[in-house]
């Protein structure tokens, strides 16, 4: 049997949702080309514009955003796009029942661009709300689908519509996403964690305790050695966890307390929590399930602890 392609796998699913996912996958192929050609086309570096996050936008942050908007806005059921790089929702039409809202982080880990490390794109899809169709502040429980593309040693598109997680690899010669990683599942236990330890002095006691118990190794209370990885691209860290297990932490700490953490709820934490849950993992703030948070603002940030279920359960128990 020949390997399955993304459109074939989506063929028996909801047609409106499938065509939006296909449009997103096409945008991701375009972003992969932008990323891989960036030095040649003079697109590395910054624009000089500060986005709503207070970050200096890279040229590719904006080019990736523009490509998603251009390709996805042709979809007749897409009412609005919420993007990391745009302050307000972009309304494409008057929202009608069953229309979709798309949430995107067009380029994740963009500080890795200049050093040729993995970056990605993250997306999430909900329907417009039934009580207020213009309200895009929908909790993660309303997600119909979520996924990411990783522009790494290969380009992959990983997507879930809630029941399972399927991973596709871009065939460079044909331009097709081929199903190479069916039914991705996160192992329940792990001996690998991911956290930016340069922030250790700001951590609160549950995180201090967890990391010190891991680094104590075999002689410590965990009785085993742990490995640590941090790529500064959430897509790359989550992808590694989907492939071989692990736990990713970007907690609220005493230095980012006022903002609520670093990771943005609507287009980073919610989609990754949805995918991790569909892959048998868990995603929490430490105090509550990420998918239960009721968003209060568009670019709201949250603590994120996600990955292998045993580790997330343990870290929650320390809160
Ligand atoms: P983005 O590039 O979309 O702004 O996101 C970067 C995020 C996330 O991908 C990553 O895990 C984290 O920022 C890295 O933060 P540090 O710079 O503190 O390592
Ligand atoms: Mn950014
Ligand atoms: Mn990001
Ligand atoms: Mn980004």
Automatic annotation (TrEMBL):
Substrate binds at residues 108-111, 196, 262. Residues 186-318 form the Fructose-1-6-bisphosphatase class 1 C-terminal domain. Binds 2 magnesium ions per subunit. Its main location: cytoplasm. Residues 12-182 form the Fructose-1-6-bisphosphatase class I N-terminal domain. Mg(2+) 2 binds at residues 105, 108, 268. One of its GO terms (cellular component) is cytosol. Its cofactor is Mg(2+). It catalyses: beta-D-fructose 1,6-bisphosphate + H2O = beta-D-fructose 6-phosphate + phosphate. The keyword Protein biosynthesis does not apply. Mg(2+) 1 binds at residues 84, 105, 107. InterPro entries: FBPase_C_dom, FBPase_class-1, FBPase_N, FBPtase, Fructose_bisphosphatase_AS. GO terms for biological process: fructose 1,6-bisphosphate metabolic process; fructose 6-phosphate metabolic process; fructose metabolic process; gluconeogenesis; sucrose biosynthetic process. Its EC number is 3.1.3.11. Homotetramer. Belongs to the FBPase class 1 family. This is Fructose-1,6-bisphosphatase class 1. It comes from Octadecabacter arcticus 238.
């Amino acid at each position: 049997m020949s390997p399955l392609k993304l459109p074939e796998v989506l063929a028996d699913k909801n047609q409106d949702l499938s065509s939006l996912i296909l449009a997103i996958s096409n945008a991701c192929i375009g972003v992969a080309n932008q990323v891989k050609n960036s030095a040649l086309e003079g697109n590395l570096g910054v624009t000089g514009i500060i986005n709503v996050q207070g970050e200096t936008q890279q040229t590719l942050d904006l080019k990736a955003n523009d490509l998603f908007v251009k390709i996805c806005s042709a979809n007749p059921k897409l009412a609005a796009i919420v993007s990391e790089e745009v302050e307000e929702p972009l309304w494409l039409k008057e929202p009608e029942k069953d229309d979709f809202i798309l949430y995107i982080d067009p380029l994740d880990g963009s500080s890795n661009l200049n050093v040729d490390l993995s970056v990605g794109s993250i997306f999430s899809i909900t329907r417009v709300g039934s009580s207020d169709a213009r309200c895009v502040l929908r909790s993660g429980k309303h997600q119909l689908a979520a996924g990411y593309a990783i522009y790494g040693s290969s380009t992959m598109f990983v997507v879930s519509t809630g029941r399972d997680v399927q991973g596709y690899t871009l065939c460079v010669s044909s331009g097709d996403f081929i199903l190479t990683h069916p039914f991705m599942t996160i192992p329940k236990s792990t001996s690998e964690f991911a956290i930016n330890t340069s922030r250790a002095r700001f951590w609160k006691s549950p995180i201090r305790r967890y990391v010190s118990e891991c680094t104590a190794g075999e002689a410590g209370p965990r009785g085993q050695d742990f490995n640590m990885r941090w790529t500064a691209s959430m897509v790359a860290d989550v992808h590694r966890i989907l492939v071989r297990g692990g736990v990713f932490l970007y907690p609220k700490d005493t230095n980012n307390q006022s903002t609520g953490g670093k990771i943005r709820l609507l287009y980073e934490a919610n989609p990754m929590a949805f995918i991790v849950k569909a892959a048998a993992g868990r995603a929490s703030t430490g105090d509550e399930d990420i998918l239960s948070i009721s968003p209060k603002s568009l670019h709201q940030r949250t603590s994120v602890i996600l990955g292998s279920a045993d580790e997330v359960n343990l870290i929650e128990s320390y809160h």
